[in-house]
Design a protein that fits this description.
Largest sheet of chain A: 4 strands, antiparallel
Strand content of chain B: 35-45%
CATH superfamily of chain A: Folate-binding superfamily
Largest sheet of chain B: 7 strands, mixed
CATH topology of the largest domain in chain B: Gyrase A, domain 2
CATH architecture of the largest domain in chain B: 2-Layer Sandwich
CATH superfamily of the largest domain in chain B: Probable tRNA modification gtpase trme, domain 1
Number of domains of chain A: 1
Number of helices of chain A: 1
Oligomer: heterodimer
Helix content of chain A: under 10%
Shape of chain A: globular
Number of strands of chain A: 6
CATH class of the largest domain in chain B: Alpha Beta
Distance between the termini of chain A: 23 Å
Strand order of the largest sheet of chain B: 1-14-2-10-13-12-11
Radius of gyration of chain A: 15 Å
CATH class of chain A: Alpha Beta
Structural class of chain B: mainly beta
Structural class of chain A: mainly beta
Order of helices and strands of chain B: EEEEEEEEHEEHEEEHE
Largest interface: A-B, 13 and 14 residues
Strand content of chain A: 35-45%
CATH architecture of chain A: 2-Layer Sandwich
Distance between the termini of chain B: 22 Å
Number of helices of chain B: 3
Helix content of chain B: 10-25%
Chain lengths: 88, 195
């Protein structure tokens, strides 16, 4: 069980949260001509690294806010969390 | 308000669980809180109004996480950034809020019908909640609230007194029956009075 520090509520148990995927993914610019390959990369392809990973989490049972987490995918150590509009 | 409360046909009065040779006055008390007005107040992202200038029933909207401001009839719970829950016994509280907060800056919604509210009171109240919730209750003080889970059900816990520990617990109306059974099952070990 992970203990995750929500930037708004403080340290809480993992079962209050929901994992929201890779935080590095950026949607292609609106109005820009986008190739099928770029859409594929955006929608489907993820890096799945072993080690430090930037993730999105949602405090679904608490303040219902999205935030960023940097976590080691092999040890599950959480290095830092930040609000969604802040740099990690 | 609807005449039928969420737990009207679920909540049973009487003494249950391990109450033998125990003082009835020291047993846990579990009751349904009825006719509570619950208003959700959300400040829009683009709003530049300061909430610090606004008072409802003499109470401030605290911007401090998990903090509650309260008086005898009304409690204002911090629910999320720029989001509060106003719980009150005052029938005109909705109009009071509407007249104090500009509709261009705030979304004000009456959610009284959509929540079931259970009150659990007694020295063992925290022990009951510990069975299903991951919150650290040893750091949970009066006038603190928290959104969390209890056996997988999303709830809001509000500690209104610690003499003895008295919690108001809000959950979605449709989860009310299931939540009630989880709470009462957890309380059987200590014995409880359904009030």
């Amino acid at each position: 069980m992970l203990e995750i520090k929500c930037p708004y509520c403080g340290k809480r148990s993992q079962n209050e949260f929901s994992y929201g995927g890779d935080a590095n993914i950026k949607r292609p610019e609106l109005g820009k001509e986008v190739s099928d390959r770029e859409w594929d990369d955006f929608v489907y392809f993820r890096k799945n690294p072993r080690g430090m990973h930037l993730e999105l989490w949602h405090h679904v049972a608490g303040c219902r806010q999205w935030f960023k987490v940097s976590r080691d995918t092999s040890t599950h150590e959480i290095f830092k969390t930040s609000k969604i509009n802040e740099e990690l | 308000m609807t005449a039928i409360s969420p737990l009207e046909f679920v909540h049973k009065k009487g003494i249950f669980g391990d109450h033998h040779k125990k003082n009835e006055n020291e047993l846990l008390q579990i009751s349904e809180v009825k006719n509570l007005i619950i208003i959700q107040v959300v400040q829009y992202k683009k709003s530049k109004t300061s909430i610090n200038d606004v008072k409802i029933d003499g109470l401030e909207f605290s911007e401090k996480s998990s903090h509650v401001t309260s008086n005898k009839q009304t409690r204002i719970l911090w629910s999320a950034p720029r989001t509060w829950l106003v719980l009150s016994n005052k029938e005109n509280i909705f109009d009071t809020i509407k007249s104090n907060l500009n509709e261009r800056d705030f979304a004000i919604t009456d959610i009284s019908h959509s929540r079931a509210v259970i009150q659990i009171k007694g020295m063992q109240a925290k022990e009951v909640l510990k069975k299903g919730s991951p919150i650290n209750f040893s750091e949970f003080n009066v006038n603190r609230c928290s959104g969390t889970i209890f056996h997988g059900i999303t709830i809001v816990i509000d500690l209104i007194s610690n003499d003895p520990d008295t919690f108001n617990i809000l959950t979605l109306r449709s989860f009310g029956e299931s939540f009630y059974h989880h709470i009462t099952d957890s309380a059987l070990e200590f014995g409880y009075v359904g009030v």
